Amino acid sequence: MEEIETVVIGAGVVGLAIARALAQAGREVIVLEAESGFGAGISSRNSEVIHAGIYYPRGSLKARLCVEGRRRLYDYCAAHGVATRACGKLIVATTPEEIPALDDLAARGARNGVEGLRRISGAEARAMEPALRAEAALWSPGTGIVDAHGFMLALLGDAEAAGAMLALNASVRKIIRAATGLFVDVDGVTPMRLHAREVVNAAGLAAPGLSAGLAPAPPAHFAKGNYFRLRGRAPFSRLVYPAPVVGGLGVHLTIDLGGQARFGPDVEWIARPEYAVDPTRAAAFYGAIRRYWPDLADGALEPDYAGVRPKLVGPEAGGAADFRIDGPERHGVAGYVALYGIESPGLTAALAVADHAAGMLIGAR
């Protein structure tokens, strides 16, 4: 049986950020990743958007960690040569009935400390993006795009420079409370048991299941989000979002750092994670997109990819819940921190989430 001070389960953006924070604090850290590469799950199947922090209730973890994380993310990426683009975002009301929702978002964003938000008229929005249909819009200049893979590569480099190790194809089967510390049973080419003083469960979609029998965990709900890409170039230079919908932020337009425009995600509740994009879902995409871009041509969309968001509540409860980061004070298991429901804005908030989670262990000694 191998002895290790700290195990981090999951090499997504949050797991890597936590490993970095703990290694830089002097911990001996190993990151266990079930896949053959880092960032193969939620972290690589999203819009790569740097969120401003507009949508989340004041005082929530999502609000606090997104706003802090965004500020730190831009600085971190600049210092590490990771590509970003602060292109800004227009949240549009396509009917007069949607305008009050923009005012609510503007007020919520201001309460959360989001800088630079401005309510603008439809004419002002069309002056910025002539192809847009809008009765009014909320302009968020701090929203942007990040190279998520490059960000994770930089986090991994920092963690390894501080002594952390990454083990791939190392699927964790079970975490067991020991007389001192925790046992971590790992499958793979050579199954093994690790004895760790501390364990951080940042396993994304698998996180609730790994806590079974160890600590209370929420039920797992899975919201699949499908994306379609645009054939050719879009007549937009900024991100365009509709008014939010139940379970997500609506089918929005993003433009990646290479100039590729894509639309999504939609919300498809599923029983278990799977990533096939059904081409017939394009019909609903055309209808949603044409509400704010009426000139979208027939046949312009093609299936791209899908991601799955870890939800803490199902569609009957609206699908919206705060991040849940459980430490020993909540569940009573010394040395154990578990992260649940780390969906959007987890990429943006990763550095702040990492410090919050790592602090539960660093502060315990």
UniProtKB/TrEMBL annotation:
Cofactor(s) demanded: FAD
Pfam families per the UniProt record, alphabetical: DAO
Annotated InterPro entries: FAD-dep_OxRdtase, FAD/NAD-bd_sf
Family: Belongs to the L2HGDH family.
Superkingdom in the source lineage: Bacteria
FAD dependent oxidoreductase domain location: 6-358
Keyword flag Flavoprotein: yes
Keywords: FAD, Flavoprotein, Oxidoreductase
Protein name per UniProt: NAD(P)/FAD-dependent oxidoreductase
Gene Ontology MF term list: (S)-2-hydroxyglutarate dehydrogenase activity
